[in-house]
Amino acid sequence: MPHFFISYAKKDTRELALQLEAALNTLPDVTAWVDKSLRAGRSWEIQIETEIRRCDYMIVLYSPDMNRHQHGEPESYVLSEIHYAKRTAHKPIIPIMAQKTDPPMSLTMEQYIDFTLPNLRLDDLIFAICDESGVGAHGNAPSSPAPTASKPIPSPRLEIPSLPPTPTEPDPGTRMTDDKGVEMIYVPAGKFLMGSNEQDDEKPIHEVQIAQPFWLDLIPVTNAAYAHFVKDGGYKNPNYWTKSGWDWLQTDKITAPEDYDNFTDPRQPRVGVSWYESFAYASWRGGRLPTEAEWEWAARGPEDRLYPIDVIFDANRLIYDENSGGKTAAVGSGIRLSGASWVGALDMSGNVWEWVNSLHQPYPYKAANGREDVEGFGGRVLRGGSWYDNQDDVRSSYRVFDSPFRRDFRFGFRLLRPPSNR
Q1: pLDDT, tens digit, for every residue of 246-256?
Q2: Coil vs helix vs strand at 7
Q3: Residue 148 pLDDT greater than 50, yes or no
Q4: For residue 320, how far is the Cα from the chain centroid?
């Protein structure tokens, strides 16, 4: 699915940019993004750079305002975006002459699509973009030769294919209650940069595609929610457990989670559960533990949040060693709402470490290399930090691991369900 970033000068090509975005987003298997209005409180550089890294192609609309630096004015955003796309993100660029002007120096050798030729329409331009990006060659849109300054567009017009109606995808953060009475939030598919340069175990930073959307628990699993699993015979049914988990259960004669003083309030996160127990509870709920990549995507999202709560640390919005009072805090809908992740997931930063499905392996993350084998041997990853940990440990990219049978008063979890399994 090709994804386009549209770069333009707002002074003279905003209308065309918005029309292009709308037209491209009507094509099957094509998406486009244009800067309509940046998020409040977000710097221009962070969001624009994130969107450029996510795209497969950058469309650049040439116009006089993009070259205003030639008249002694500051360099335009368009030129800055071109420089970042070419030199840092290494993205292919599709130039379009929207209004007569000199191409930027960095693109003087690039053949551009000339939209200033007479009698051209928007659908001609879409044809040309599809041809340049190879979309038409894959059957996702009709193909047509790309127009250039010396090669007029041919006469065929783009007909947007009519598609059968499809279910509307929920908005990110949409809430629903599953059949066990647990509230979950919707996390869309997308791309993001996983990892960081802070710790060796978080390197290298690399792009990861989350191909399928999912539902994620709004909050960590609570004592009250986990009690239903125990009461329903969860520790007696091998169908919920991995083979190694069931062997551990029988060998160690485990019949319930481990309780700790001051950690048993029904609204507190369930701690004292191993990875094996977390897996079994998720199976009982009709879901699974999120992969390490899915967890990080739900935490930091396209905004590339340093902390799930935001790009900056705010002790008032999470539970960590400086404010926990030596124990976990109650969780629930509306509690610490200001500390929600970009999709509205609560308490992803602090309170309890969260078991994820993944075996601990070096980056880059590759789901198919065995790290998501539920019967695989080795330590399992935990994410998010806890009430016991410091500011560095509650970052979105920070990762630790432990034995799958380890039970601890810092370890909890939340689970994931696919869209079709509500």
Answers
A1: 999 999 999 99
A2: strand
A3: no
A4: 24
User: Which structure tokens are listed for 376?
Assistant: 């695989």
Amino acid found at 263: F
Q: How confident is the model at residue 1 (pLDDT cuts 50, 70, 90)?
A: confident
Q: CA angle 181-185-186, nearest 5°?
A: 130
List Cα–Cα distances, 376 to 242, 291, 414, in angstroms. Answer: 10, 14, 21
**Strand 353-359, strand 411-413: pairing:** parallel
Rounded to 5 degrees, what angle do the CA atoms 130, 9, 12 make?
100
Tell the residue number behind the tokens 């601990």, with chain if given.
Answer: 360
Cα separations in angstroms, 129 against 24, 103, 141, 159, 255: 9, 18, 10, 14, 62
239 Cβ contact list (under 8 Å, min separation 6): 283
Instruction: Find all residues with CB under 8 Å of 60, minimum gap 6, and list them.
Output: 7, 8, 78, 81, 82, 93, 94, 95, 96, 107
C-alpha to C-alpha distance for 410 and 407, rounded to whole angstroms: 9
Q: If you write DSSP's letter for every residue of 336-376 in order, what string do you get?
A: TGGG--TT---S-SBSSEEEEEEEP-PSSP-GGGTTT-TT-
Tokens encoding 388 = 């016991």
Give the pLDDT band of residue 162 (cuts 50, 70, 90).
Answer: very low
The one-letter code for the residue type at 414 is: R
pLDDT digits 0-9 by tens, 42-71: 455 677 888 898 899 999 999 988 876 544
The DSSP bridge partners found for residue 269 are 222
Strand partners, 95: 60
Indicate whether 149 pLDDT > 60: no
What digits encode the pLDDT tens for the residues 367-402? 999 999 999 999 999 999 999 999 999 999 999 999
Distance CA 112, CA 136 (A): 18
